[in-house]
Amino acid sequence: MNKKKGYLIDELEINSNFKNVRGLYRDIIGFKKGYQCTPNIVKEEKSNLVMDSHSILARWKNNFSQLFIVHEVTSVRQNEIHTAEPLVSEPSAFEVEMKVQKYQRLV
Predict the structure, then answer these.
(1) Would you give per-residue pLDDT tens digits along the chain (107 residues)?
(2) Containing H/E element for 104?
(3) SS3 of 84, please?
């Protein structure tokens, strides 16, 4: 018995013990069919089918590069920023010093 069949038998036993009917049925069908080779085929932009690995990789690269094109943002004015909270300015050195002193008194 090869590794794959041994693994499937173990899966069948586990699914049977846990009463996982769906998993048990799926594994029985897989065990009956044996190994099924699935070909790698990709459709090009012009609906041509491509099977060689270099063309498939090039097609995927082209597809994702088109998906992730980001248009450059040149400038954003302050009034164009929409936030849920109002914008808060940076604290001054005096405000920071006052908070530190207040914290030190509490500790």
Answers:
(1) 666 677 778 888 888 888 889 988 888 887 788 777 777 888 887 888 988 888 888 888 888 888 877 666 555 555 555 666 666 778 888 988 888 888 888 76
(2) helix 93-106
(3) coil
Which residues, in sequence order, are CB contacts of 23 under 8 Å at separation 6+?
11, 15
Cβ–Cβ < 8 Å for 53, 44: no
Q: Which amino acid appears at position 100 of this protein?
A: V
Report the predicted TM-score, pTM, of the whole model to 2 decimal places.
0.34
Residue spans of the domains in the chain: they are 3-33, 38-68
Two structure tokens written together for 19:
């009463």
d(CA 35, CA 21): 22
